[in-house]
Amino acid sequence: MNWKLTIRLTAALALALLAALPRVAAQTCANCEKLGRTAADLQMQLLWANETLRQLPDLQNQADALERQRIAALRQADVDIDHARLYGNLARDARELGDRTHSDADYERAAGYTQNSQQAKADFEANEAKAKALGQQQAELRAKIASAKPEVDRLTKEVAVAWQAYHDCLTKTKCPPPTATGAAHSDCPDADEWLNRADELYGMAQREHGFAMQARSRGDAKSADYFEQQARSSDSMARTREQMAAYALLKCGERPAVGPQQPQPIAESAVPPGAIRLPPEGEERGAVTITNHCDRAESYRVETTGLPEGMITAADELRVDAGATRPFVLIYSSKGLKPGLYSGTLRIVCLTCNASCPRQDTSSPVLIFIRDK
C-alpha cells in the first residue's frame, strides 16, 4: 500500500530557470556558505542595477529638470545682484541729498534703499548656492546614468561566475559544519529546505538521464529526446533552488537563526514568478490540496517557519477521509507588515498518523511579496 502523502501547493513557486553557465574551478568545502551569500548579494545588486537601467528615461528627465532649475536660479541671481546695485545707488543718492537738505525723509529713504540692497545681495548669494547645489545633484545623476549600463554588464558577469562557484562547491564537495564565515546551511532551516529540494531534483535529473540512455539504446529517439529535455529542466530547477538557499543564507546572516525574518527590499519587477503577491494591509485566500492515501480518516495541520506570525493562517486542523482529497484554505495577510519579499516554509503535519499509516509530513518553500502601494 502506498502511504505517501501527496501535497500540491496551489500557488506553486514557478521560479525562472537559469541559462547554462560556464564551468569554473571548484572551491574548497569551507567556502560554500560564503560563496552562496556572495552570489546572492551580487544578484540583488544586479536586480537594482537593472532597475536603474530601466528607469534611465525618467532619470534623464530628472537631470534635465535640474539643469533648467539651475539656469533659472542663476538668472534670478543676476536679477538680484542688479537690484542690489540699483538700491545701493539709490541709497547713496538719498544720503547725498539728505546731507544737502538735512531732511530726515531723505535719510529714511536712504536707509530703506540700503536695506533693500542688502536683501537683494542675500537673495543673490542664496540663488548662487542653490544653482551650485542643483549642479552637483545633476552631475551625480548624470554620472549614475552614464554608469548604469557598464554596471549591469559588470555585475552580470560577476553573478554568473559567483553562482557557478557556489554550485560547484555544493556539488563537488560535502558542505561543512558551521564556520567563522557566517551562517551555515545547517544553521538556517530555510536554506537547508531549499538544498533538500535541489538534491531531489538532481536525483530526478540523473534518473531521467538514465531513461534517455535506455531509450537511445532501444532506438527510441523520440523518448530519448524527451527524457534528455526533462533532465535539463530538472537540473536547471535544482540550480534555482540552490540560489534560493543562498538567499536564505544571506538573510540568516542578517537576523537571528530563530524567529521571523525581516522583508527583503526588492523591486516588484524583480519578484520571482510564482511568489504570492499581497497589497499593503490586505488579505488574499489560497489553498493547499491534501490527499490522504491512508485507509482511514486522518487529521492534518498547517505550520509555517521563517514567516511573521499571522502572515499565513488556517483552521486548527483539517480531517480528510481515507482516499479523499480536500483543500486546506489559507489566508495570506500583510496587515502590520512592511513591504518587501518574505520567504519561509509551509509544512503540512499529519496529527493522527501512526504505525499503520506512517507519518509523512511534507514541507514546501513559500515566497510572499508585499507591495508598497
What would you say this structure looks like, in words?
- There is one protein chain.
- With 373 residues, the chain is α+β, with helices and mostly antiparallel strands.
- It has 5 helices and 9 strands, in the order E-H-H-H-H-H-E-E-E-E-E-E-E-E.
- Helix 1 (32-54) crosses helix 5, helix 2 (56-101) runs antiparallel to helix 3 (104-172) and helix 4 runs antiparallel to helix 5.
- The strands form 2 sheets. The chain has a 5-stranded mixed β-sheet with strand order 2-9-8-4-6, with helices on one face.
- The chain has helices spanning 32-54, 56-101, 104-172, 189-217, 221-252; strands spanning 6-9, 276-278, 283-291, 298-305, 312-314, 318-320, 325-333, 340-350, 362-370.
- It has a domain at 272-370: Immunoglobulin-like.
What's a quick, concise take on this entry?
With about 375 residues, this protein is an alpha+beta fold. The chain contains five helices and nine strands; from the N terminus they run E-H-H-H-H-H-E-E-E-E-E-E-E-E.
CATH architecture of the domain at 272-370: Sandwich
Q: Give the C-level CATH assignment of the domain at 272-370.
A: Mainly Beta
- Mean pLDDT reading: 75
The percent of residues in helical segments reads 40-55%
Number of helices: 5
Beta fraction of the residues? Answer: 15-25%
Instruction: List low-confidence stretches.
Output: 1-30, 174-183, 255-260
Can you summarize the main beta sheet?
Answer: 5 strands, mixed
Strand order of the largest sheet: 2-9-8-4-6
Categorize the overall geometry.
elongated
**Class by SSE composition:** alpha+beta
Radius of gyration from the CA trace? 33 Å
Compute the number of strand runs: 9
**CATH fold-level name of the domain at 272-370:** Immunoglobulin-like
Topology order in helix (H) and strand (E) letters: EHHHHHEEEEEEEE
CA-to-CA gap between the ends? 51 Å
